[in-house]
Amino acid sequence: MNSLTAEASGKGKIAVELTPEEALALTGVKFNGNPEVTAEARRKIRKAFEKTFDFQYQDRLD
Question: Highest taxon of the source (predicted)?
Fold first, then answer.
């Protein structure tokens, strides 16, 4: 299983531009007409996080 570790001390900040629907989806609001809203918001956040902090991929055996 792959795991992801980040060297983030919680002191840095990231900026992510989300649509109002994406922001609402992250709070738990369901968009039955467009289930990709939540996934797209998470992709944007992950991409911004990866640009800001140092990620290292590790393989683990569970």
Answer: Bacteria
Q: How far is it between the farthest Cα atoms of the chain? A: 40
Count, in order, helices (H) and strands (E) of the chain: 2, 2
**How does pLDDT run across 7-29, given as a tens digit for each residue?**
555 667 888 999 999 999 999 99
What is the rounded distance in angstroms from the CA atom of residue 7 to the CA atom of residue 5?
A: 7
Tokens at 8, concatenated: 């983030």
Q: Which two tokens stand for residue 32?
A: 């039955």
